[in-house]
Write a structure and sequence with these properties.
Three copies of one chain form a homotrimer. Chain A has three helices and 44 strands. Chain A is mainly beta.
């Protein structure tokens, strides 16, 4: 470990990493750049460096600015523990708890309140570089970014349940290539990971939970992957959001509540949402909007049920049950081989007395909806003060239920020339049979 | 690496890691706890630590007890090599072998024989903590746990082929959150990895083979994932077992023989077994039992053929060919788009002369079986003394075969209101057409 | 890090890693072997070692020969940046670029020109060992292998666009077990990763691009996985190639242009290509040839469109539009639930005026083609000098298009007894209805 391109924040000679790890890392980056001043000659380049954060608490009072390629920042522990559960434990019980805070290689984000008009200001790590080439191969691995506290949102909700604080974990503002975010933990940030203009990005095997929004791919981009993550946003935000991306692969993720959406695509084309496990307490779990076209949504498990944990009872994302668990505005998408479980209390359906919609085709043409299995149950949910117990109990409950009538597929007048095969019985598919091809699932 | 939260077992001042790495690690954990005695104040927590095992042989004579969150134990090498093949090489040839044992960062489990009534006793690593919060973010990464030897099981089988020795690699006894097991190797353990009451667990990219059972999720749990592993249990045990779990994602695993089952769910709901490659020498490859419901089993490749390696000829899991390659006791499951290859010698079919069953629905209602492709061949297998060669030869053999008659889908009287589409020809689907909906695959 | 089994190339006493890291690593391997001379006794083995390359430029002038098990070579950065884009920037603009070369822990392959008849000669890392057992558990992780330059190929193409240079990143010549290649970067090599006779190999989460061919599994093998990689070969080579493999799992990869094929199987059986995102500029994206049988090709997203970047305009893989996007020579394969987008300029179709073929069954029997969705558009492509912009623009373009007539499935006379369900309208499926079963997709 004696290489001059290996840095440990605890041994760097500038700053105190416990007091302000941002200042330490910025000083290290300045050192890397100074040592790279030799021009690239004879195939020799500017290889970058690795910055190591051993397990420990590192307060960040200065934003880190990354403007060099080939920088890897790594720790030894994603450090997630539920702050949400702990903040909802009565404070007089805290002394009985083994620990109060996340851990591992933990960055405590303690920036001044950000200007909400510019979320980059509130980012612990800001990646930004003008000019060519695009900044490449920045890697974040196996450490924890903790936003510490949420702040009041003006509602009756306790501040720590608001999912807002103006803080972002990592904000990439410039076009970039071949970035990696692996094995990280993100906790109690309003935005965990926001990346603009990504090419060949990999977001893999992270733990991103109890954040307002988790993954946001903004601007435009291509050929990226979001794979094998554990993800769960707050009720106001997105678990996975992408706009104007092509060739994005979203697979093998386990996305749990309570995001306003599980996967939300806007103007995304020729991309895949396959093979994920998706769970939400609200409609609008997967949204393809703004002419999102030629995407494949296949072999996902969708579960929509009810909030079982008392602190969040009554909260929702504002969508009613006609919205669709999967909502499609776009053309030539494929929706194949998905399982949908809708397990709700019929008394809670909005609009009252409505028949909930599972798949809704709103706009566009030529969508192919085939061999999806829809299970719908009416269940009387029993909320609990114990978050884990409540969720497991609800997940495992298959008794004391009765069938619930749903619309399996609803095709709006704005959408036409779709093909709907074996995705609902004849009465469960509501579509103009003149402009759409329908083959109903045979019924016993 | 000077941080006080980074420990190397080879430089710790207590114990000798070659003689008893368990004693060394327990001493390190005691040190971590002592240094954490300051209470959590001002957002500051108990960040945990990382314990590093460089490549080397580390005998473990004392069980490690982990009762702190945010502990990462990591090595530099999963170290798998086949002990099974070597133990079946005549001993007088051993001097000609390049190496005899697994390697990497290797823990040699040398505990006293465990009480079989309490498998936790035989665990190299025991994770257990009462109270709140649940123990969180313990990570195991990139080292090898080697049980060294199997022991006689009372049968005629050589001791080293018995898959029993009372040893467990990692045993998690208490409810836990956000654990990770990545890039590990597990070898010659009766139980590789047993985890009770898991929440948001990730078991990813491990090599778990030549163990009695590989992955067992016991008790109950939710929102976990078992992804991208290479797994192969012994003939008595489970490759992947889960009970009372909801929202479990089992995907992208390559599960090879000879586990008694490849994936076995008991009372598991709203979970996914998708996109795996599964290979077994026996029926009962995927079992959904005890009211396992609303699960998705999709786009998996199932191969069932014969044991080709002479040391294990005649061994099986006791199930006959009517059991089903996939057996379902539960309701509202989805079985979509799987490929099944059944490549067996018709002379070996049990009961003699029976027509083997591929998918069997035993109990429950509302299962959806759609667009599965079933290939069945009668083949004369030729076992070999060379394990790798025998397996590859069998895998690649597609000549000298003839079609084999099978029942594609059998619906027992205990199961009703199922929908079976395009998963077998009319004669290959045996189901009460009055209580089940069947659309047979068209035949040329 | 004081263990004698942990080596850092920058601190080893033999050689200069900047001048010839190959000589340094070979010296380290010799040291490991010398220290392992004690025989394996009392369960004690030859655990191997880890060799660390901190971020930096390491020229390799001597081939590394690996002939010990349990060796892990690791860096701290995959270091990809596009050399292809930079070499196509006018040289007088280079001084304005932030950096010219890939980075991270970067090995600069500077071997004498290889004998093209023996690609092993041109390998930076050669793994080869005779005898038993097979060499096991060699791991490559998180460093960059850069071939630096391509060489003239005799065509009019600039040398740096030729994708040939006789260099290979890693070449495994001997039968092997439980190898891992994780988080690596491969750039500007004629062959990135060539592995013979693999058992239980894992190639996971790598970045392999701008190489002639990326992943080649040669000889024969079994039970391996290629998962979660970003891959893109040159127009002459393979992105993923395998021959005589059984039980191979190819999943969750994002394979981008411009490989002559995306996935090419020759004599591969009982394997899976599922859940990948595949993008190519030519036909022949997925090829199952030479009796590749009982494979599952499911829930992949196929996009074939046009080269949008001016330096490669006019280049193709020599296949015409009748070849098929997916071409099958083999039996009993399953092609289920895939999305195909064919977005081409009808004026470019070859043979002129032909109707392009999407899925072509050439030879074999018993293939099952079910529930694939085929989208075909005629588009006027607008190439650009800006590689990233051109690709994103093309990917996102769904306006100014019109439907294009295609043959969804073409069954050659050499293929029979296939089943084709819901994968094209009646006129889009060209097959002998006497010897194949066809159910056309209903049309609106």
């Amino acid at each position: 470990m004696s290489s001059s391109n290996y840095y440990d924040v605890t041994t760097w000679h500038v700053g105190n990493p416990s007091e302000d790890v941002g200042k330490v890392i910025n000083s290290i980056i300045a050192d890397i750049k100074e040592r790279q001043n030799a021009s690239d000659v004879n195939d020799g380049g500017k290889p970058g460096a690795v910055i190591y954060l051993p397990p420990g608490d590192y307060r960040l009072r200065t934003q880190v600015l990354i403007d060099i390629s080939f920088l890897r920042i790594q720790g030894s522990g994603h450090g997630f523990t539920s702050s949400s559960i702990r903040f909802n434990v009565p404070e007089d019980e805290w002394p009985d708890l083994h620990e109060l805070w996340p851990g591992g290689s933990r960055v405590l984000v303690d920036l001044p309140v950000a200007d909400s008009a510019n979320p980059a200001n509130g980012a612990a790590f800001l990646v930004e570089r003008a000019g060519s080439p695009r900044i490449s191969s920045v890697e974040f691995a196996n450490f924890c970014i903790d936003g510490l506290h949420f702040t009041p949102d003006g509602s009756d909700l306790p501040a720590e349940n608001s999912y807002v604080n103006g803080k972002t974990g990592i904000h990439v503002a410039s076009a970039n290539d071949s970035f990696r975010v692996n094995e990280m933990g993100f906790i109690y940030l309003e935005h965990a990971l926001t990346i603009h203009n990504a090419d060949a990005l990999s977001i893999h095997n992270n733990f991103i939970a109890e954040c307002g929004s988790c993954i946001e791919l903004r601007g435009w981009g291509q050929a990226s992957k979001i794979t094998d993550n554990l993800i769960g946003a707050g009720f106001k935000g997105h678990s996975i959001y992408a706009e104007n991306h092509g060739g994005l692969l979203v697979t093998a993720n386990n996305v749990f509540p309570r995001g306003a959406s599980s996967v939300h695509f806007s103007g995304v084309t020729r991309s895949s949402v396959t093979n994920n496990r998706l769970h939400s307490f609200y409609p609008g779990m997967v949204v393809l909007e703004d002419n999102s076209s030629e995407n494949l949504v296949a072999t996902n498990h969708f579960l929509r049920d009810h909030e079982p944990w008392t602190p969040f009872l009554g909260i929702d994302n504002g969508l009613d049950d006609l919205h669709g668990i999967l909502s499609v505005s776009g053309s030539n998408n494929s929706v194949i081989g998905n399982h949908f479980s809708q397990i709700i209390d019929s008394a809670s359906i909005r609009p009252e007395g409505a028949t909930p919609v599972i798949i809704r085709l709103r706009e566009g043409t030529g969508n192919f909806v085939s061999n999806n299995h829809i299970v719908a149950m009416n269940v009387h949910s029993s909320p609990s003060d114990d978050c884990f117990e409540a969720q497991v109990d609800a997940l495992l409950a298959t008794d004391d239920v009765e069938d619930l009538a749903v619309t399996a597929v609803l095709v709006d007048p704005g959408s036409a020339r779709n093909t709907i095969l074996d995705s609902g019985s004849d009465t469960q598919v509501i579509a103009d049979r003149g402009t759409n091809a329908v083959r109903a699932t045979p019924t016993p």
